[in-house]
Amino acid sequence: MNVYEHHNLEAKALPIILKEGVAARSAQMFHPSNWHENVEIIFVLSGEGEISNNGIAYPLGEGDIAVVNSNCLHSIYSANSRVKYRYLIIDRTFCIENGCDTDSISFSPIVKDDRLFAVCDELYSAYTGGEGAPQRVLNIRRLLLDVLYILCSEHGTHRGRVENSDKRASYIRAAIEYIKASYQGDISLSDVARFVGINESYLSREFHKYTGETFISYLNYIRCKEAKKLLLDQSLSITAVAELTGFRDNSYFSKTFKRYVGTLPGKYREKEGELL
Fold it and tell me: Of 93 and 190, which is predicted with more confidence?
């Protein structure tokens, strides 16, 4: 199984992913955590919300910058409004090549830095609006180095390679990977605990702390996420989709799917089919 979630960069010469996103209040209020080996910087453009960073919730507001260290479980969400943000993911190889080993630096989780915000605005403009410009790649890499310099000099602290919080987070990452690989079968919390190699009650407590969800809730989220893909295949009956995603009871599948997606499986298939 993969330990990390991987990113597809636009090109090797452009070692970043830079996009805008929106975290909106959801009917099911489920916000799955993710992680990766690359540092991620989130710039809040408008709205208010929270980011969960390795099990700790931090409030976010317009002008805030959240920094997610490598391999940290994180999710961003809003309970009452929409949060518009811009996120920058920096390839770790680029960081190391330029003297910044992100595995040995701990960045402040929330920062206020007008200079950093301004540099990233310029970077976003160069990245999204400068295609065809002869110096586009050089300009982007120059600005990216400015971002790393500000982060390291103003908001970074050298740390040991392994911290206790990192070890706890690694258990949860392993548990999530096991769920993603085994959701089609009849898996239980005890199965996951045995795989990870820790006590069941400890896993239950830490899983909720880091993801904000129980094991069952997260498992059902993964199953419904996969069911959405399978429902696009008209050759599969809804019963078959339920079985292929680990649901053994059609009624429970329908009820759970509506909770996480907001509509029944048949209605979802009908609506999405019209868009194809």
Answer: 190
**Global model pTM greater than 0.90:** no
Parallel, antiparallel or unpaired: strands 74-77 and 105-107: unpaired
Written as six digits, the tokens of 214 are: 């129980």
DSSP helix/strand/coil, 49: strand
**pLDDT tens per residue, range 197-235:** 999 999 999 998 888 789 999 999 999 999 999 999 999
CA separation for the pair 207, 127 (Å, rounded): 37
Euclidean distance between CA atoms 127 and 195, whole angstroms: 42
Pick the CATH number of 16-158 from 2.60.120.280, 3.40.640.10, 2.60.40.10, 3.40.50.720: 2.60.120.280
Report residue 127 as tokens: 């990245």
In a 3-state reduction of DSSP, which class is residue 112? coil
How many Cα atoms sit within 13 Å of 221 on the Cβ side? 16
80-86: average pLDDT? 86
Q: Look at the alpha carbons of 24, 25, 26, 29 in this order and tell me if their dihedral is positive or negative.
A: positive
Please give the span between the terminal C-alpha atoms of the chain, in angstroms, as a whole number: 32
The dihedral of CA 148, 152, 154, 160: what is its sign?
positive
Contact 179, 192 (CB under 8 A): yes
Q: How many CB atoms lie within 10 A of CB 263?
A: 13
The residue written with tokens 């950093």 in the block is 116
Indicate the fold that domain 171-275 takes in CATH: Arc Repressor Mutant, subunit A (1.10.10)
